[in-house]
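Dear H.,

Thanks for agreeing to be a second pair of eyes. The structure we're designing against is below in token form, covering all 235 positions.
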């Protein structure tokens, strides 16, 4: 596992050279907010990283309920007994419910659907909710209930799979040949494009995603990625 610190944010990357899977710590006065839990075997490295930082993990926040973002959730919940936060919409997916609302586009939810996850969320997030220094933003598309989180102290955005930076910066749903997996796991590409514009509108100083490197001062890369998505998805 690789750890990179940027301000209040720590990026924890598993398999950085082969199939990078990121989760994040956000440092707060009362401890660490863990955003996503990576893979099933990630629990002990995450706990060790927190120990090295010297602060307890105070809460777990999930960007969405795909398997590579909630893999170690049950182990960490059992160990830490801290509150778990997820969007109200993706709480259904966390429980294995892949049904769609009548108002939603009736295309199947893709990606690693959770199976037999014991943990239930303690807090169901809505757009604009506050979690410490973070503000939650509803950014669906990759899943129906995906969320991104803005650190109001630094304007860093943790965007889950709304974007990827592995193999090049791309909006969720746009296939990057070197790393096509986020696109393959995207539920609704046009809604994902709308969410990418929401993230762009936050004018992030730093973009942190589920797969790939941190983007510092990402405005130019976001603009290019969104224009490419518009060309591909709005034909």
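And this is the sequence the design step returned. I haven't edited it by hand at all.
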């Amino acid at each position: 596992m690789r750890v990179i610190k940027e301000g209040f944010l720590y990026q924890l990357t598993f398999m950085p050279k082969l199939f990078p899977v990121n989760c994040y710590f956000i440092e707060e006065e009362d401890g660490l907010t863990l955003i996503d839990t990576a893979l099933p075997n990630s629990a002990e490295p995450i706990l060790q990283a927190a120990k090295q930082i010297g602060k307890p993990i105070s809460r777990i926040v999930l960007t969405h309920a795909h398997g590579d973002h909630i893999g170690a959730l049950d182990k960490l919940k059992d160990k830490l007994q801290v509150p778990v936060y997820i969007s109200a919409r993706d709480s259904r997916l966390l429980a294995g419910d892949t049904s769609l609302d009548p108002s939603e586009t009736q295309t199947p939810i893709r990606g690693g659907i959770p199976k037999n996850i014991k943990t239930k969320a303690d807090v169901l997030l809505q757009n604009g909710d506050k979690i410490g220094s973070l503000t939650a933003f509803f950014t669906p598309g990759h899943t129906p209930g995906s969320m991104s989180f803005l650190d109001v102290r630094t304007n860093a955005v943790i965007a889950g799979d709304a974007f990827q930076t592995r193999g090049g910066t791309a909006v969720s749903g746009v296939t990057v040949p070197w790393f096509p997996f986020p696109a393959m796991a995207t539920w609704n590409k046009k809604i994902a494009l709308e969410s990418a514009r929401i993230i762009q509108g936050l004018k992030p100083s730093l973009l942190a995603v589920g797969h790939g490197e941190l983007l510092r001062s990402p405005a130019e890369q976001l603009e290019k990625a969104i224009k490419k998505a518009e060309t591909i998805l709005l034909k």
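Two observations from my side: The chain has one domain: 2-233. DSSP finds seven helices and 15 strands in the chain.

Warmly,
E.
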